[in-house]
Amino acid sequence: MELSSMIGFGVAGNFAGHLEQAGEASDFVNVKVKDHIQPKAIFPFYLPAVENTFLATFPVSHETIQFPEGADNLQIEPEVSLICDIQYENGKVTALLPKAFAAFNDCSIRRPGAKKISEKKNWGPASKGMSANILALDSFSEGGALDRFHIASFMRRDDELHAYGLDSPAVEYSYFHETLLNWIVDKMNNQQDEGPAEDIAQLLAASGYPTQAIISIGATRYTEFGEKTFLQPGDESIVIVYDATLYSPDVVKQMAQKSEYSSQGMSVLSQQVV
Questions:
Q1: In three state form, how does the secondary structure of 220-258 look?
Q2: Beta-sheet pairing, 92-105 with 78-89
Q3: Cα angle 271, 234, 247; round to 5
Q4: Upper half-sphere CA count for residue 140 (Cβ side, 13 Å)
Q5: How many Å apart are CA 193 and CA 95, to the nearest integer?
Q6: Which residue ranges form the domains of the chain, and what is each CATH number?
Q7: Gap between the Cα atoms of 161 and 226, Å rounded
Q8: 171-216 pLDDT, tens digit each
Q9: How many Å apart are CA 51 and CA 43, to the nearest integer?
């Protein structure tokens, strides 16, 4: 699976309370939404086949996070990412077809003055993370296997493991299943270059209408530790997407403490901050 040929998008504001904890809710005060749970926008983090933009650099790593120069407020963003096929007709996206999923770290610099969401998301190689253990998706409809999965995240510093994000069922995403896919398709076709958002249809065209996408579907809420503690070189960032019918949160934490994980029913992303 050649990830670098896929366009990369993220969903902003798809977990209640995350934007407030991240200090980013004010970025979206003028964004019109249908209801209070609707995500705010989609944003690009990687544009294949596009030159003369920082988003042309493939940012996803399985093993490391490159600490950004001149930034001291870098946070883990624990998410589920979907690998989707994109279908088009006459230059419009007609369908997104999720084929697989994985643990994802939409690692972000908190830049209060950033004009676009993407300015916080890609500062070069290894500024994002995705597990090499990508799990096949039977269905993204209600009742599918992903409904059983939880998202957990930890940070290891000086040999001490700390819970970074709240252990969260994937079904607690504000928009999920077909509701999420339909909303993303609409944003791909109709989102405008306004405020922190960008014209996604123009970016798809500039990228040559890629047929696959990595879509990170939103970060969980933080623990008190995660909300207040920023990454530094030497830390380890861990995101685990796991089948909660097979493992309890305590067992997952024990695995993280030992750095010993099961090969069944989980997608693990461990990155060293360098």
A1: CCECHHHHHCCCCCCCEEEEEEEECCCCCHHHHHHHHHH
A2: antiparallel
A3: 40
A4: 23
A5: 22
A6: 3-273 (3.90.850.10)
A7: 12
A8: 999 999 999 999 999 999 999 999 899 999 999 999 999 999 999 9
A9: 18
Query: Mapped to the 3 state alphabet, what secondary structure does 46-113 carry?
Result: ECCCCCCCHHHCCCEECCEECCCCCCCCEECCEEEEEEEEEEEECCEEEEEEEEEEEEEECCEECCCC
Q: How far apart are CA 153 and CA 130, in angstroms?
A: 13
Measuring CA to CA, which residue among 100, 99, 31, 110 is closest to residue 77? 110
| Token pair 């926008």 in the structure block, residue | 41
- Contact between 105 and 239 under an 8 Å Cβ cutoff? The reply is yes
Confidence of residue 70 (pLDDT cuts 50, 70, 90): confident
Residues 6+ apart with CB under 8 A from 182: none
Q: Which region among 98-102, 148-152, 226-230 has the lowest average model confidence (pLDDT)? A: 226-230
Q: In the chain, what is the straight-line distance between the N-terminal and C-terminal CA atoms, in Å?
A: 26
Percent of the chain with pLDDT over 70: 92
pLDDT bracket for residue 35 (50, 70, 90): low
Assign residue 164 a region: left if phi > 0, alpha if psi is -120 to 50, beta otherwise? alpha
Buried b / exposed e over 59-92, threshold 16 CB at 10 Å, is bbbeebbbbbeeeeebbbbbbbbbbbebeeeeee
Residue 155, token pair as written in the block: 């940070």
